[in-house]
Amino acid sequence: MHFFILTGNSCLQLGGTFSEMILSEPTENLQFRTPSAPVFAGIASILLIAGFLITFGVPFLGHWLVREDPIHPADAIAVLSGRFPQRAIEAAQLYGSGYAPEVWLTYPKNRGGSKEPEDERNFEVLRSFGVPEGSIRVLDTPIVNTADELNAIGSWLKESGDRSVIIVTNKAHTRRVHSLWDKYHAGDGEMLVHGLPGDAFSPARWWESASSRAQAIHEMLGMLDVWAGLPVHRPLQKSA
């Protein structure tokens, strides 16, 4: 292939192929650099850390969310809303085993709709499992979220003069319940968190189940909210 360059009244012919022209460039202008040893070491370190976090960090998250207490006899057993009817059934069984003389239910603020309010349904479950009507107390402070429930439980502990309560919830929820109590109600009395024995949440392999994944993500977002001072799930009433 030949190239022609017109310069004024003259014509210059450049012979040779394009590849020949490229190869004729001074070799000092073509520099090929290979990553240095420190760069290779940095990449290897990042991959190693990522592998470690995936292998050990992800399972650790599930175990970290579960923070249960060894339970002992207390003044009351409190059933947090949700997971109907498993929590109420477990509370009735704890009552039957002599762990407390009373079972407390929380009072949902939103009581409209076609469904019977959850406190009434939990009441019926407790009665059907042998808890006497006189041993069931519905706390009258309206609640919307976990922070509200713990406010109601802590307030009644102080008002009634009771000193301890066993709180029944699902396993993935136990860490957040503990964190809220320690942060806002440590002076209200002793709180023991009891997770449902038959809970389907799998701490070691929580990512494999849609239900466990949803719980883990929900609780991690809830923990971020607790650490930030509850900007998202603000309680209806401030804790005393």
CATH class of the domain at 76-227: Alpha Beta
Uncertain runs are 2-15, 17-25
Order of helices and strands: EEHHEHEHEHEHEH
Architecture of the domain at 76-227, according to CATH?
Answer: 3-Layer(aba) Sandwich
Strand content: 15-25%
Task: Kindly state the percentage of residues in helix.
Answer: 40-55%
List the total number of helices: 7
The count of β-strands is 7
Strand order of the largest sheet: 5-4-3-6-7
> What is the global morphology?
elongated
The averaged pLDDT comes out at 83
The CATH topology name of the domain at 76-227 reads: Rossmann fold
Class per helix and strand makeup: alpha/beta
Task: Explain what the structure shows.
- The chain is α/β, with parallel strands linked by helices.
- It has a domain at 76-227: 3-Layer(aba) Sandwich (Rossmann fold), CATH 3.40.50.
- It is built from seven helices and seven strands; from the N terminus they run E-E-H-H-E-H-E-H-E-H-E-H-E-H.
- It has helices at 18-23, 37-65, 86-96, 118-128, 146-160, 174-184, 210-227, and strands at residues 3-7, 10-14, 76-79, 103-108, 136-143, 164-169, 190-195.
- The longest helix is centred in the first third of the chain and has 29 residues, at 37-65.
- The termini are far apart.
- Residues 2-15 and 17-25 have low confidence and may be disordered.
